[in-house]
Amino acid sequence: MNHKQMLKVFAVPVSAAFIMGIGHQVVLADETEQPIDATETVDTTTEQSTTMDQSPIQQQDVNASATVAPQQTSNVWIGQQGYASLEEAVKNSNDGDTITLGEGRFTLYNSPNIQSYTKGKSLTFIGQGIDKTYWGIGATVPDPSKFGTEYNGDYSFDGAKTVTFKDMTLQSKAKIDYLGFIRIDDTIVEDCKINGKTFYWGYKTAIFKNTTFDDTDTDYAIWTYSSPIMTFDGCTFHGAGKYINVYTDYSTGKENRTVNINNCTFITQKHNKSALNINDSNMGNYKYYVNFTGHNVTEGIQPHTLTCSRLFGFSNNKNNSGRLVVKMDGVPIWQDAKMVSHSIDTANDKYTDGYKDDAFDYTYGEWVKQEDGSFKRHVKRVCQYCGYAEEYDEIKAAPVKPTEDSKSQETPASKAPTTVNTMSKVTPNKVNAVKATTNDVDTSVQTNIGLSILGVFAGIAGILGYRKKNK
Ligand SMILES: [Zn+2]
């Protein structure tokens, strides 16, 4: 995200919330901010608090809300008690209640004074499944005059403790920044689908379990914006190249922030960003702590040229200011603005992706026989993803001394090393570009192949000898 030319102060209508001092004005606009379309119809008065026909991706659906059938039978329950609407159920709920939703579309957005019934409560909402129960977050048609602020957000749980959503699709208007639920302490989203981009989840913690983030067009699925601790467990992201934006201008530089990624999958047809796009430049004396655990999978994402990872990266170098610690299965892999090492094995994964994929261009020196009979050669390899170069010596053990029984089988080939070298991944064109200073590449390759062939002979001879001995 490039803020350089995006710093804007928005004129925010003086709402009651703002006067009361609970409003929070956001002054940074995202790069994806849409130009204000004067022809866009903004009519939030048609929002209904219960079974509105809401499809936030399609603005014209707002007007369709008038066609919703009246609640003839209960579609919302607390225990066995049915209610005429979600709003009625919430008004009658106690702290800790579970509210069950039937099929249909629900929202509490703009429900008059609903905050007074949710404040201080922990509530759980359980739907009938992601293709049956839909919950609209915030304005179906965001007001362009409030772009860049939180005021298109959803205040229906302002001051609530823990709010849990299960088995439903949560919908937010895509492409508009600063949407979500304003000022819930903790949020839990489990077995759900989330459509559109959201910024506001739990202001202490936000947990997403087995949840799919979808339909985000060209934009991010989510910002870690409001949540000091955000956890994604078993989640899947389908997107057009942007997933999690690890960034905030809210509460900037006042606390450490943690993002946990466990067993998640990031899928795209179009590479754009890493799974986590990080900007730690405004964290002051605090840091981001990003923890990858388990098996995290990406499809269609290119490795970041600096981090050499598909899982995390930066939009530009300025966003990598050293206020980030990344761990993989508990092992530090990135800190002080650089990788801890290019080759790290963790309990479930490897860092970097270059190391993981063995995506190196190799340059080999000649095998040199050592005093103890072993062979040594110098190897240089350069990562194709990030350009990281390293050099090391490779040793092959001395050939095993033939036993008495196998002496009759001995051939000249058996004097060659018995270890067949499998590191034959050489791309001559790229090797030449690597500036191999000490060795002639072509000679070393030929030597390598020759020794490998000798090694195969030696292996055959060894097998024959072994067979004879064991007859
Ligand atoms: Zn690399």
TrEMBL record:
Record bears the keyword Phosphoprotein: no
Signal peptide: 1-29
Transmembrane segments: 449-466
Classification via SUPFAM superfamilies: Pectin lyase-like (SSF51126)
Domain of life: Bacteria
InterPro entries per the UniProt record, alphabetical: Pectin_lyas_fold, Pectin_lyase_fold/virulence
Location of region: Disordered: 40-64, 399-421
The protein's name: Right-handed parallel beta-helix repeat-containing protein
Native source organism of the sequence: Absicoccus porci
Classification lineage: Bacteria, Bacillati, Bacillota, Erysipelotrichia, Erysipelotrichales
